[in-house]
């Protein structure tokens, strides 16, 4: 095992040790945002019949070939067909049918002229009226054809495709009311530290509230997983070993925070090594150099640092991709854009640095990134007010204001390609 590995190596190492979880079938409404585990097919043609795209008059296009403002073509309105109804009668020469949006187009008609451009000569435009057309119309104008979107038996959502809110409606229209998808990962969240107390408590001297568990549970939930916050574990090897072992038996992924460095009370590395296989201990990044990963009883166990920003960045960069793979997603990295630095940034650390930052557009419409002034790894509030991570690559090269720098977007899905 290498002492320190790159972020890319760390991500690939973790991804190599997780697989998509077994399938489950969920109601179509619960499938929004999830990945189809199998091809999904329509049971009918969509649309099942040719229907009108708007309110108007169903006509034969050939009869309006000579229509003009100077010499309009007049027709008698012989019937009216609403959505849900069917007109099965014939349409003779010089006749048309009043039709509503979504109604089946009569067999004798081959076009629909919208109501607003038709003049009512006599009556109210309904059956018994006479109307005038002042322009020709093309065949199939304003007609949505049968099977236009899908044919019966055709795959409408492919395996591996993420189902959006519109996709839920599409599937419902295709008769797909249940969707096979990969089960959401059950993630155990464990905070380590004898100094921690529950957020409901007012900390006494020497104590702090356990905020990490809630942030990491929120990160897991945002990644599509089902998190469970387990009790705080005191700083002893025995207590941590018991907690990790129990969690590995019950959950699909275990995430701890705290105790990931090399101090006298940092035990996650020896615990993972004792209980299973230790695969990683440090990553060439800041914040979050100390990143422990291994497998215990067949379950991935990841030990994050205790500093909030270090834990958040480690989760976002390495754990989130793994949880997405377990759900069948195919894309694992957030979109990256280039932006101009708003100020000089000095670099005195050779690691890759992720600066909590705000991305915006200037008056010229160009992206500008403003790194937060306080980059302390102990702060959550800075992350809350950030929408991206400005990336300072490995090395000691500083950057001046106006320099282009890569920015990873935190509020845009991995599926988006920029």
UniProtKB/TrEMBL annotation:
What Gene Ontology cellular component terms go with this record? cytosol
Domain annotation MoaB/Mog: ranges: 188-325
EC main class here is transferase
Q: Does the keyword Transferase apply?
A: yes
Named in its record, the pathway it takes part in is: Cofactor biosynthesis; molybdopterin biosynthesis
Which Pfam families does the UniProt record give? MoCF_biosynth (PF00994), MoeA_C (PF03454), MoeA_N (PF03453)
Top-rank lineage group of the source organism: Bacteria
This enzyme's EC code(s): 2.10.1.1
**Which example biological process does GO assign this protein?**
Mo-molybdopterin cofactor biosynthetic process
Q: Which family does it belong to?
A: Belongs to the MoeA family.
Named cofactor requirement(s): Mg(2+)
The chemistry this enzyme catalyses reads:
adenylyl-molybdopterin + molybdate = Mo-molybdopterin + AMP + H(+)
Would you tell me the protein name for this molecule?
Molybdopterin molybdenumtransferase
Q: So what does this one do?
A: Catalyzes the insertion of molybdate into adenylated molybdopterin with the concomitant release of AMP.
InterPro entries in the record: MoaB/Mog-like_dom_sf (IPR036425), MoaB/Mog_dom (IPR001453), MoeA-like (IPR038987), MoeA_C_domain_IV (IPR005111), MoeA_C_domain_IV_sf (IPR036688), MoeA_linker/N (IPR005110), MoeA_linker/N_sf (IPR036135)
Can you name one GO molecular function term for this protein? metal ion binding
The alphabetized UniProt keywords are: Magnesium, Metal-binding, Molybdenum, Molybdenum cofactor biosynthesis, Transferase
For the keyword Magnesium, the answer is yes
